Amino acid sequence: MKDQLESLVSQMIEQGILYTDAVSEFEKKFIKQILEKNNGNHSKAAAALGIHRNTLSRKVDDLGLNHRPKRRKRAAR
After folding, report:
1. Residue 36: which residues within 8 A CB-CB, separation 6 or more?
2. pTM of the model
3. Which of 21, 46, 50, 66 could form a disulfide with 56 if both were Cys (CB 3.0 to 4.6 A apart)?
4. pLDDT digit string (tens) for 2-55?
């Protein structure tokens, strides 16, 4: 894993990717996958990330993720 990361960082540097862009993209991908793993549940995802749920919600908004599964329609009674 460490070798892959070092290789990726080297490629990003060679391509002139800015630090802030790299960090932002990493954070976005990381959070998105954790949310998907937790079916969009912010509380569970925040716990998995080791951050407060409110912090996660703010990051989701800031990064434009807004990953919330669509609610299923209830069957008519």
Report:
1. 67
2. 0.75
3. 46
4. 999 999 999 999 999 999 999 999 999 999 999 999 999 999 999 999 999 999
